[in-house]
């Protein structure tokens, strides 16, 4: 684990954006851009959450700070939680386990995992392997 962050925001009107705050925090903490991240696993409790996160990082402000995120080559390459599964109370373990497996299969060095939770909560972790 290179870095992690937990976030909580006012759920109205920003219910879907708690992971965004955590992603920004860990990228800044580690002085990383999207170019430094090989894979991204975003919890997809529902499609709008991932779309809201991706839309936020397309903003000119975020692109200037973190670079452009190549969604097609990095984000949820095996499908998100809608396709793979969203086992309540074990989603975080499923996400991290899947990310570690994907890192091994794809020989990725660094993966960012993010999850949203009820009430405007978010959790993000950056995983690295040598």
TrEMBL record:
Q: What domain of life does the native source organism fall in?
A: Eukaryota
Which UniProt keywords are listed?
Membrane, Transmembrane, Transmembrane helix
Molecular function in Gene Ontology = acyltransferase activity, transferring groups other than amino-acyl groups
SUPFAM superfamilies, alphabetized: Thiolase-like
Specify one Pfam family: Thiolase_C
Which Gene Ontology cellular-component terms appear in the entry? cytosol
Q: Where are the transmembrane segments?
A: 108-127
What are the Thiolase C-terminal domain coordinates in residue numbering?
A: 2-129
**Protein's name in the database:** Thiolase C-terminal domain-containing protein
Q: Which organism is it from?
A: Eutreptiella gymnastica
């Amino acid at each position: 684990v290179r870095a992690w962050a937990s976030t909580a925001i006012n759920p109205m009107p920003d219910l879907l954006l708690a992971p965004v705050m955590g992603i920004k925090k860990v990228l800044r903490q580690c002085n990383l851009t999207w170019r430094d991240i090989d894979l991204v696993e975003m919890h997809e409790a529902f499609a709008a959450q991932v779309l809201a996160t991706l839309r936020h990082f397309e903003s000119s402000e975020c692109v200037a700070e973190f670079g452009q995120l190549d969604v097609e080559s990095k984000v949820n390459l095996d499908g998100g939680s809608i396709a793979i599964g969203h086992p309540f109370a074990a989603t975080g373990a499923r996400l991290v386990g899947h990310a570690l497996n994907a890192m091994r299969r794809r020989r990725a060095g660094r993966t960012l995992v993010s999850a949203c939770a009820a009430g405007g909560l978010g959790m993000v972790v950056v995983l690295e392997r040598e």
